[in-house]
Amino acid sequence: MAKVLVVTSGKGGVGKTTTTAAMGAALAQAGEKVVVVDFDVGLRNLDLVMGAERRVVFDLINVVHGVAKLPQALIRDKRLENLWLLPASQTKDKDALTEEGVGRVIAELRKSFDWVICDSPAGIERGAMLAMRYADEAIIVTNPEVSSVRDSDRIIGMLDSKTVRAETGERVEKHILITRYDAGRAARGEMLSIDDVLEILATPLLGIVPESQDVLRASNVGCPVTLNSPASAPARAYHDAMRRLLGEAVEMQIPSERKGLMNLLLGRRAA
Amino acid sequence: MSVLRLFTGRAASAPVARERLQILLAHERSLRGQPDLLMQLREEILAVVSRHVLLDPDKVIVRMDRGKHVSTLEVDIELPNGADRAFASAG
Questions:
Q1: What is the CATH number of the domain that holds B53?
Q2: What is this structure's pTM?
Q3: Which residue of A has its CA nearest to B1?
């Protein structure tokens, strides 16, 4: 049974595209057949983070409009043979997507993949609505910060009311993924704690991804962080999250960077 | 933690964030799924007042301020001079 997973957040810049790429690659490495779909029409970035920006010929809009067939638009990852990308269009605006057209593409993707991961645009407008419309499961990417938590709450409300599942009396299975977490600042009371965020959002936790330079380094070179530096703290966090998504019971922990003794003593963040 | 705060001289801000979010989200959730309350109030106030005086619908401003303990509803209706008399003589 194929699963449609939306990666969403409401707020921009919290790590949706990073998460889509990292989770997609992790699932593909675990043997699942995965397609990552960029819904950010007009501001596509998933191709860049995946390192496939020079291989884009056709895109989601072309397929929705029947200009290209789905296999023509799908780009196979060069590193993982189980991983595919369906890019967004760079030029057209968000109205180019129709609910019915997206439904057709998702239905077709369900036939050939185990996981269809939809990378949502920021906001709560049409693009974000369409990205979540056909989802079975959702990852709500949240930073431990007031505006991100508020927007996540809003998105949770939409997942519970505006999706096909919600309208047919079923539930979208929701997971919170906390990203850019800084354990030191949380311990000093400078950042909302994991418990604070979970209590406020009342949604189960999928994983905690620490703030790390490895994420930027991976996007610089166009490689999902789970592939680029598998031993890094964020990659391990995404890997654990992937296993939980597959139904494994993995103990929740916050992977940390190795800190030098001086850094620990001075309470500095590891570089 | 309090020892740490003695050294840094700063109060932890996370509890403030948490409390603000809890108050705000409780409120926003209660409004979810309902039609926009302010728009509805504005429409109905406009209907009632314009039954008695002539007014310009664009000059009706309805604003709500939410405080911690009480909220206020501010209705600002601008009436053109002589509007009520004009209306009375017309009716």
A1: 3.30.1070.10
A2: 0.80
A3: A188
